[in-house]
């Protein structure tokens, strides 16, 4: 079983360097954000900026795909995004369902094309 997880020292470093620093900020965000109104102008702006950044990343991945994604045909990549968006709309704006739907189309299409 230790071969699967690696050495205990590596796991300890992973927890100290990767998990704990992120958890500290997540807990601070929960603590500070507990009293913030979700409809406030600040949070609406933050949500808009986050959405714009995500759209930019998706556009960059579509136009200049990195790594193995570059071998996937353009039409399949665009079709997977369109399918993911359609699933997102049909499931009452479920981001999880949209991502899973797009991923299924991408993987199944790439498998079918060989």
Notes on the protein architecture:
By secondary structure, the protein is mainly alpha-helical. It has three domains: 1-35; 37-66; 72-114. Helices cover 78% and strands 0% of the residues. It has helices at 2-5, 8-33, 41-63, 74-90, 95-113. Helix 4 runs antiparallel to helix 5. It starts with a helix and ends with a helix. The model has no long low-confidence stretch (mean pLDDT 89).
Q: In a few lines, what is going on in this structure?
A:
The protein has 5 helices and no strands. The protein has 114 residues and is mostly helical.
Strand content: under 5%
Number of domains: 3
Alpha-beta classification = mainly alpha
What's the rounded overall pLDDT mean?
A: 89
Question: What would you report as the Rg, rounded to the nearest angstrom?
Answer: 19 Å
- Give the terminus-to-terminus CA distance: 35 Å
| SSE ordering | HHHHH
SS summary, helix count: 5
**What global shape is seen?**
flat
Q: Give a short account of the largest sheet.
A: none
Q: Roughly how much helix do the residues carry, as a percent range? A: over 70%
Poorly predicted ranges (pLDDT <50, ≥5 residues)?
none
Strands, total number? 0
List keywords for this structure.
114 residues, mainly alpha, 3 domains, 5 helices
Task: Spell out the blueprint of helices and strands.
Layout: H1 2-5, H2 8-33, H3 41-63, H4 74-90, H5 95-113
Helix pairs in contact: 4-5
